[in-house]
Amino acid sequence: MRIAQIAPLHEAVPPKFYGGTERVVSYLTEALVEQGHDVTLFASGDSVTRAQHEAAWPQALRLDPSIRDWVAPHMLLLEQVRQRAHEFDVLHFHLDYLPFSLFSGLDTPFVTTLHGRLDLPELQPIFSAFPQAPVVSISDSQRQPLPQAGWLNTIYHGLPADLLSPRKEVKPGYLAFLGRICPEKRVDTAIEIAARVGLPLKIAAKVDKVDREYFERDIKPLLSKADVEFVGEINEAQKPAFLSGAQALLFPIDWCEPFGLVMIEAMACGTPVIAFRRGSVPEVVDHGVTGYVVDDVDGAVEAIGRLDELSRDEIRAQFERRFTSDIMAGNYVAAYESLIHTRRPTRRELRSVAVG
């Protein structure tokens, strides 16, 4: 199958720093190539891939301080894809609603994976205006604010099976928090949970500029009040040891997280996840198998006391059954085939029928 993957230009694919969407695009693209498909990745010029690479902008926008209008490079990206659309069996966008207007009138089938939050009021008229634009959700929970959207399927994220793996020589001895520090991720709640159970907490997280004031004002003072180590942002090579050394990953979110990639990163290392019942959590965490889904701090404290009931080998096995990039790619191929087989007739085909 000839597949175009169209990534955002904010980060490289894969990202050099934090960037969940671009990371997933990379995992998907490489898995599709491995499965034998003819894949072209439209992305920033500093991206790295085994697919054919179409550099839509010289480098990731986040790394270019001269860029003030991020829409302009993306408009150029869309035009490049439009001009080559006829070369592909399917176009797969990761650009939210940007492709809807331009590509709804083309003959080549397209689909958009929605990676972010959808509970914003300004999105309602957009998806009402394009109810036939095919979209994929990354959890069933993500769909709830937009029932009118043209939902094709829910496809969960996946990681390469050998990207992260358990380090059995590492003895778990602390609780872990991984990801990004911001109010809705509630690292303060993670600190409270760790203090309640008397376990050390290691925080491996990025602090964006927009969240720096929150970190300095609300989080930094808490670091000295408990047995907390702030590790900072870590890369892929550091994650296996960090996660394998944790008795559990704490995920006490305070918003409807569409997916939560860190949860399956922990599972890949055999590490249980203790997560609050928000957003995608009940879909991703198999309660009593890969961790515990809880409602509050008291529930998290109780769950930590039951970690011995979980098998770290079974957590890894469940990850392999549900959340590898190979499984993700297979699910997307099925979605592509559905689009191709149910597509409307092309303008050329309609003219041919009329003439005949």
Would you mind describing this structure in some detail?
- Keywords: Glycosyltransferase, Transferase.
- By secondary structure, the protein is α/β, with parallel strands linked by helices.
- It folds into two domains: 2-158 and 326-355, Glycogen Phosphorylase B (Rossmann fold, 3-Layer(aba) Sandwich); 174-320, Rossmann fold, CATH 3.40.50.
- Helix content is 37%, strand content 19%.
- It has 14 helices and 13 strands.
- The strands form two sheets. A seven-stranded parallel beta sheet has the order 3-2-1-4-5-6-7. Strands 10-9-8-11-12-13 form a six-stranded parallel beta sheet, with helices on both faces.
- α1 (20-34) packs across α13 and α6 (187-197) crosses α11.
- The longest helix has 18 residues, at 325-342.
- 44% of the residues are buried.
Radius of gyration: 21 Å
Largest sheet: 7 strands, parallel
Question: How big a fraction of the residues is strand?
Answer: 15-25%
Number of β-strand runs: 13
Instruction: Using the 3D structure, state the CATH architecture of the largest domain.
Output: 3-Layer(aba) Sandwich
The overall pLDDT, averaged over residues, is: 93
Tally of separate helices: 14
Biggest sheet: strand arrangement: 3-2-1-4-5-6-7
Beginning-to-end CA distance, first to last residue: 30 Å
The structural class is alpha/beta
Enzyme class: transferase
Pfam families: Glyco_transf_4 (PF13439), Glycos_transf_1 (PF00534)
Keywords: Glycosyltransferase, Transferase
InterPro entries: Glyco_trans_1, Glyco_trans_4-like_N
